[in-house]
Design a protein that fits this description.
lyase activity; 2 domains; alpha/beta; 411 residues; single chain; pyridoxal phosphate; nine-stranded parallel beta sheet
């Protein structure tokens, strides 16, 4: 790889015409809609980063597991996935058809035999788990399975603002700290794994690696690979790709190891929407629009993180609390809520240019990564379809959910 490989021109995205002029009323509501053109743009960039850095980039199912789109990922050289459970490992083997990397905070005796049949890389959260399952791993290796084993480490350093998503916070159950690290149990282990990023830029990764090297550098010469986990939001506008490539290449060369990145959000970032429609408008001091989607069931991160999603064609209200009609500049404010009986099933207040009426579409932006994988059937409300808006503008409904899916989740 020459120095020119790192020039910004290496990262010019291909001329893929984004879908325009979408007829939202032609898409049955509610529905998660993936825009193929936007996904291809992300995949093209991720593929270029993979080639330039020499890292292996795999998709984290916990952030993006829309398996109807996996053929596109393979088309751009994404050769594997990371799973956090037996079910995700099965999905990786059956649908992704590449390397299967598995990490979970703890494995059960009942599931380990099946996981061993599926996993190419198996990461343990603790040395006690490694000791417990090492005989089974060795037996599988003796039968000819090439299973790479890693230990998740906790560098006790993270720049994550929300405690819910901070794996290196105080008393974290995730990963082995330097104090608890067992060099005497490294026989059979050929990799280390850390995951402390959450939608961060590459400068955070660089600072994290300094801590990893300081705390665990003495063990790196014994390793064949290091997994940098996820949270590398390389498809976000303004992300420093050159730094990411430089940092990854320097680490690979310094320690003579393979580097693995497993982003989830970067694949689905800004690739689609959640389409909803207005079912009713009620008034109790303020106007409230009730949609055919649920915040708690279909957009749980809005309440958990919390964050405020963008609605196409809608604006934010004035910041001060005591607002008058004149504060809205002629716009029409509405509290946007869902259809479950949860009192807090509300996104927040938005300003629309025109009054909302029953049947109007309300389109939530950037709803493909994480949001789709965390939905529930709470209250039995209708679950959104899953669809793809193709390059030619045609819409394909790839999944519709009905009563049977709701019933199958219960007993």
């Amino acid at each position: 790889m020459t120095a020119t490989d790192l020039s910004p021109t290496r990262f010019q995205l291909p001329d893929i015409t984004p879908t325009v002029g979408i007829d939202w009323t032609a898409i049955p509501s509610p529905a998660f809609v993936l825009d193929e053109s936007r996904l291809r743009r992300n995949l093209a960039l991720i593929s270029q980063v993979q080639r330039a850095s020499g890292a292996r980039i795999i998709v984290a199912f916990k952030g993006f597991s829309m398996w109807s789109a996996f053929p596109l990922l393979r088309e751009y050289g994404i050769g594997g996935a990371t799973a956090s459970s037996l079910n995700e490992a099965r999905l990786a083997r059956e649908e992704m058809q590449g390397e299967v990397h598995v990490y979970a905070p703890a494995y059960s005796d009942e599931e380990m035999p099946q996981i061993l049949e599926l996993a190419d890389h198996l990461v343990f959260n603790s040395f006690s788990q490694w000791e417990r399952f090492k005989p089974q791993v060795e037996a599988a290796r003796a039968k000819g399975q090439d299973i790479h084993v890693g230990i998740r480490i906790n560098p006790e350093y993270a720049e994550v603002e929300t405690d819910l998503y901070n794996p290196a916070g105080p008393f974290s159950r995730l990963g082995v700290t330097r104090r608890e690290f067992r060099e005497d149990l490294l026989d059979g282990v050929d990799g280390l794994h850390f995951h402390t990023l959450c939608e961060k830029d590459s400068d955070t990764l660089e600072r994290t690696l300094e801590v990893v090297e300081r705390n665990f550098g003495e063990f790196l010469p014994r390793m064949k690979w290091v997994n940098f986990g996820g949270g590398h939001l390389m498809t976000r506008e303004g992300y420093d790709l050159q730094r990411l490539i430089r940092v990854v290449r320097a680490f690979r060369e310094k320690w003579a190891v393979d580097v693995i990145l497993e982003p989830g959000s970067a694949f689905g970032w800004q690739t689609g929407w959640l389409v909803s429609r207005v079912l009713d408008v009620v008034h109790n001091v303020k106007d409230a629009a009730l949609l055919d989607v649920s915040v708690s069931a279909h957009m749980p991160d809005v309440l958990e993180m919390p964050y405020r999603p963008r609605i196409l064609g809608a604006g934010d209200p004035p910041e001060h609390e005591h607002r008058e009609a004149s504060d809205y500049g002629g716009g029409h404010p509405y509290l946007i809520g869902g259809t479950t009986c949860l009192a807090g099933d509300v996104v927040g207040e938005y300003i629309f240019e025109q009054p909302l009426k029953i049947g109007d579409r309300v389109i939530f932006d950037d709803m493909i990564h994480y949001t789709m994988v965390k939905t529930t059937f709470f209250n039995g409300v209708k679950h959104p379809d899953i669809g793809i808006l193709h390059l030619d503008g045609s819409y394909e409904r790839v999944k519709a959910f009905g009563y049977e899916e709701f019933k199958a989740k219960l007993s």
